[in-house]
Amino acid sequence: MNTSGENLLEVEDLCIAVKGAGLDVIKHVSFSIRSGEIVGIVGESGSGKTLAARSVIRLLPEGIEATSGRIAFEGEDVLGMSPRKLRKLRGSRVGMVFQEPMTSLNPSMLLERQLDEALALHCRLPSATRQEMILDMLRRVGLEEPKRALTSYPHEFSGGMRQRIMLASVMLLKPSFLIADEPTTALDAVVQRDVLELMVGLTREQGTAVMLISHDLSMVARYCDRIIVMCRGEVVETGDCKTLLENPQHPYTRKLLGAMPKRGPERSFAQDEAPLVSVRDLVVDYPGRRKLLRREPPHRALHGISLDIAPGQVVAMVGSSGSGKTTLGQALAGLVKPSGGSIGFDGKPIDRAQTSYWDYRFNCQMIFQDPYSSLDPRDTIGRIVGEPLRHVRDMNKVSRAARVAEVLEEVQLGRDYADRFPHELSGGQRQRVAIARAIVRRPRFVIADEAVSALDVTVRAQILDLFADLQNRHGFSCLFISHDLGVVEQVADRVVVMDKGKIVEEGDRSAVFDNPQHPFTRKLLSVVPALEAAPGGGVRLQWRLDIPGHGSEITQSSALATTETI
Amino acid sequence: MRLPFQINAMVGGAIIGFLLLVALCGAFWTPYDPLGISFSDKLTPPGPSHWLGTDEFGRDVASRLMAGAATSVWVSITTVTLAISVGVVIGVTSGYARGWFDRIVMAFNDALLAFPGILLALGLLAVLGANKYGIIVALGIAYSPSVARIVRGTVLSIREREFIAASRVTGNSEIYTMCRHVLPNCIAPLTVLATSMFGWVLLAESSLSFLGLGVPPPAPTWGNMLASARPFIAQAVWLAVLPGLCISITLLGINLLGDALRDRLDPRMRGRT
């Protein structure tokens, strides 16, 4: 392994601008990466981290170009490279793994041809040897039947498997540098851990340097030797992973680390209080796919869920994708029709035919995940927020406008936002509008479906604070659906863990996080490390569970990292 | 290459504005009677008394072009309105209802789409009779399937967006959600479609008139003027060139305006130019 002090990649004073507009998107960025080192680039959306990484292999989008600076890869000038040399650099010496494995693998090509393509282009080897290499690599990335995989198409594999295959195709060429752009963002926590472990293992073995681009700080903290923090096209801080996290210098880094979710204060609820929402044996079936003459049997998304939510309580629903947590939210909001079981509200069972149903619908509101699609682009903010008031009796135009203005103030937007359109607002502002719409009717029950998942770290922290504040003020109950354990730990009073359409564990926050019982909960908690506040104003990586083997693993790995980079 | 937004809009708008003005004027006043025959003036080249010359019956070409514009514009606007109304109703109900209703309606719609518009219109005209109203109904029916297709596609994509779910959670009825949130979001693609369809209909109407199946003579349209100019193309080239030029320039204006309108009507594009 090449771990000498030689810099593999040197970027000096790099500026990237939009052609013609003179608009700098990357401003005077300098950094270097040594052989075999894993470097994380963190920053929020728009910070230019992807552009900076892509410029290394000159893979910039149309209309954006490097205007000044120098990029040297293994001593060669990349910006002045001929197209022929550049092609060689891209395929064989620098590999890239993208976020979305479905779109980066060609869906119409057999894996064998796809994996062989680059190998045949860059190495002069007989095809039997190449096939042997491919099979070997597929075995290395954990595919159980590599021979069968060769004659399969990408769609036959799950997201995690596709990302492993993608990694295999890149690592086959033994590149000296790997760019991984949010490689596991689209994957579930457990799969994410497996894929990253594999990536780190493979690259360490081959001495490949890795540039890991991510917005997930705990992931970067877990696997990287060094961290580069970017903000608005500039590198604001770089340093050794542990030092930088524990003792951040730049205000932006401090802000970023301070925005990591923290466990909120415990709140107690009377045990004997009647629940506001009570769900009993709820079953939801989705109709099966239509075949030529018959339908496939229905797919059961929820297998008899029972759940109570006390007045004013925040119940968080966690689980991996496909666990049925979103379906439960939609069934409670009346968007999906349950096939069985009952939902009770305020002590009364709700039934679509009765007036109590309307009372429930009136008091139940929802916040959606994607602030870009949950607001009608043709409506003004005032109209969007005021729409639920249509159904409030005894409210005229004036009192509606007054309520809208009041709620906009409550979500800290200000009343003058009422005349704007959604496209004029940032993601965080839009999510504030979505919250305003949900609470404008003063509902007693709010369902938040991944309400902060699409937001950047610092914006997420602001929205969570706002949400907690509003929840305290108005005292509505909330079902908070999220896959992010850190966020759940911050907001939830009770935690419900779902797996495969069933509730596997439920209890108070401290009980579930500190003393999980079910194997699935333990697995989920064991793969996601937490960043806990450190004395120096920074954070420290901490396992959530003291599972034997894990605690030692984290120190071992960081020890490994330090010895290797010295 | 695309022209800058403002030039597009200005040129297209100027052409169409001028056309509408001429058509409106032509409906009420023309320099000469467009049907007035005067054999002493026949085939006069463009000159001071007849700016654009006269035809084989000595009728003033400028007056006939103006009257023709009035007919063509009226026929086109009515036809487009008819096609859009029928298409929107079919498309929205089909896209929003989905299920077996959607499949049956769309199967029928696709069968109609399989015919070239002009062929379908020809067949319908044989039944309806060759006159102004026959053309409007025939072309309206012939072009509505493409509107239905586009509207249905738009509705299908919009109904999956979260703001539709948000509207339903609020307690709004399906019909309210459809009218208030789904339909307005179809306006941008519909406007672009309507503008280009105005061009297709104008062309189709001219073609039908050229074939003798449109508005019957002596009433002037650009299409039948072009048709009747054929025997005289060697002696009186202006008779063929002028109506042809009117059709091409109008189509150019419509395309420019359509592009500009699409950019304008999408609120996400506002403030970007």
Task: Tell me the CATH superfamily of the domain at 37-54 and 81-258 in chain A.
Answer: P-loop containing nucleotide triphosphate hydrolases
How many separate domains make up the residues of chain B?
1
Q: In the CATH scheme, what's the topology name of chain B?
A: MetI-like fold
Query: In percent terms, what proportion of residues of chain A is strand?
Result: 15-25%
CATH class of the domain at 37-54 and 81-258 in chain A: Alpha Beta
Overall 3D form of chain A: globular
> CATH topology of the domain at 37-54 and 81-258 in chain A, which one?
Rossmann fold
List low-confidence stretches of chain A: 548-566
Number of helices of chain B: 10
| Lateral arrangement of strands in the main beta sheet of chain A | 6-7-8-3-9-10
Total beta-strand segments of chain A: 22
- Give the helix/strand class of chain B: mainly alpha
Biggest interface and residues each: A-B, 28 and 19 residues
What proportion strand of chain B?
under 5%
Name the average pLDDT of chain B.
85
- What is the CA-based Rg of chain A, rounded? 26 Å
Tally of separate helices of chain A: 21
* Share of helix of chain B, binned: over 70%
State the name of the first-level CATH class of chain B. Answer: Mainly Alpha
